[in-house]
Amino acid sequence: MKNIAHHLSIFLTAILFTHLAFSQSATPERNYDIRPNVIDEYRQRNASALRSSSAQSNNVPKSLDSDLGIQRPVEAKDKGFGYHLGFETKIYHTNNPASVDGGPYKTSAGIWENSLRNNFLLGAYDLGGASFSPIFSLSYTKFTHFGDDLFDTFDFDSLGLSFAGIFQFSNGWSLRPSLAFNADLNPREGLERQYSQFAPNLAIGKSFSMDPVQAFLEWSLGYNFTDTAYTAGTADDLMNRFETSLVGGLIVPFGNFEFSPMVRFALVDYSKVDRTDFMTSLSLQLQYAFAEWFKVKLQANLSARNSDVDIMDFTKIDTGVGASLDARF
What we know:
The chain is mainly beta. It has two helices and 13 strands; from the N terminus they run ααβββββββββββββ. It has a single domain, classed as monomeric porin ompg (Porin), CATH 2.40.160.40.
């Protein structure tokens, strides 16, 4: 009887795991902890907040007024307030929209991404040897998948709010403490929240001038407090994680063109599960400016994750084109 019971338990367990595996493959879910545009968000943040108050002393090169470099606020005005409104649309192909290691869902699809960003400079203050500028940012982005019906459920909208205090020093160093909130919303369910995270962060950066080429490095340290509304039967904060990253890049202008390679390395440690990831991202962007307020872009991104949980590993390549409109007041 014991042998029969033992074999029966193995059989039932096999059925259970087979059912779970089938359910997961039949209804794939987006990996909410994989932000689809980490480097793009970094580019936009630095493009949106364009010139520190130290620019008043004409020490900031014109080429730093671009999509890369250490974040610097809009040049201060007499009233101490600046505003930047930016819109970007881009369409790209990805060979791994589900960010998986293998299986039937490691297949190609297209993504159409539309972003609207608002940045408010709340004054610029001379601290003697440094400038300080608080910035409030509000963004809304729509991600629409096409080309494969498997990923219809992957569409989502993302709402972002952030507040940063930027200390800019004359020797090229910067310090940026920040608080950020992101919420992913389901456009098929009345914008019901799928996932949200609150992230305090501290970043230290250094810019280098090799006229006309500019270079920068930034190291950041932060923690993500998360809430995954769609994860039934598990803790809502299962994706809480500590993250530290190093970002570096170049700005190479030539005429109306600008080439900007960028690389990011991140170490991610999850608090609620026994898991540590190493993330790598490489981005290459070629930009052409028809005017200061209108630019078109070609971009290629390579992203990879190496995790001590093998099934979490993945590699993906995204390539596409985009255009941006910017206004500053």
